[in-house]
Amino acid sequence: MRQQILVDMDGVLADVYAQLIIFEHRDSGIKLNIENMYGKTELEAFPSFEKHVRSKGFFRTAPLIPGSIEGLKYLNEKYNVLIVSSATEFPQSLNEKEEWLSEHFPFITWEQMIFCGRKDSIRGNIMIDDHPKNLSTFDGERYLFAQPHNMCVPDRNYHRVSGWQDIIRLL
C-alpha cells in the first residue's frame, strides 16, 4: 500500500502572497515588497488581509506556486495524495478552491480534496504545509514549505523546503 501524503493548498500550491500583493495594489495603490514580510504573520504583513481573503474571487484566481503542477503530478504517481485545506474558515472559498484545484490539477479527483477547519484529525505518513501550527500536531514526516511568515521559525521537527524542486528531490 502506498504512503499517504497530505498537501496543503494555500502557500504550497496556490501563491496567496502574490495574490494578496495584487489585491492590495489594486485596492490601495500600495505596492508591497515581499522581503519586508519575512517573519510577519499574514495579518501583520497585509493591511487588508481579512477583507481580501473574504473577497469573492480571491481563492479562485490565485496564481500557482512555481513548479506545483509538475511536483504534485510526481507525488500523485508515487503516493496516495490528499489535498488538505483549512477552507471552512472562509466558507465562500469552498467552491472557489474546488474549482481552482480542478482547473490547475485535473489529475486530482474530488475524492482527494479535503476541506476542513482543523487538520489535526487528518491522518497520513507525510505532510507538506507552510504553517508550523499544522505540522506541530502531525505524527508523520513533516515538510515546512518556505513562505515569508515562517522564515524566522527554527528548523525543528521538520524538513524545510524552499520550493517544489526540493520536494521532488527529497521525496
UniProtKB/TrEMBL annotation:
Entry annotation: catalytic residues: 8 (nucleophile), 10 (proton donor)
Coiled coil: none
Single GO molecular function: 5'-nucleotidase activity
Superkingdom of origin organism: Bacteria
Pfam families per record: NT5C
One BP term from GO: pyrimidine deoxyribonucleotide catabolic process
Family: Belongs to the 5'(3')-deoxyribonucleotidase family.
Protein's name according to its UniProt entry: Uncharacterized protein
The organism of origin for this protein: Bacteroides cellulosilyticus CL02T12C19
Lineage: Bacteria, Pseudomonadati, Bacteroidota, Bacteroidia, Bacteroidales
